[in-house]
Amino acid sequence: MCGIAGYFHNEQRRTADADRLKRMTDTITHRGPDGEGLYISGGVALGHRRLSIIDIASGAQPMHKHENTITFN
After folding, report:
1. Is 2 one of the annotated active-site residues of the chain?
2. pTM score, two decimals?
3. Is residue 63 a contact partner of residue 52, using CB atoms and an 8 Å limit?
């Protein structure tokens, strides 16, 4: 089963920490050892660990297009 992690800051001047997000997703490596994706924009941080059972080729996440970003399972 895949794993999702993330956090956000309410303060506009404060930005998300990539190292913190990486540590969060590393903690759930057992949930998805086949892939990893990180997305950081301002105070928003989304991370995903992927277990590739069905969609092996094109299931990289978090998915983003233009200004919209989503992470899901």
Report:
1. yes
2. 0.73
3. no
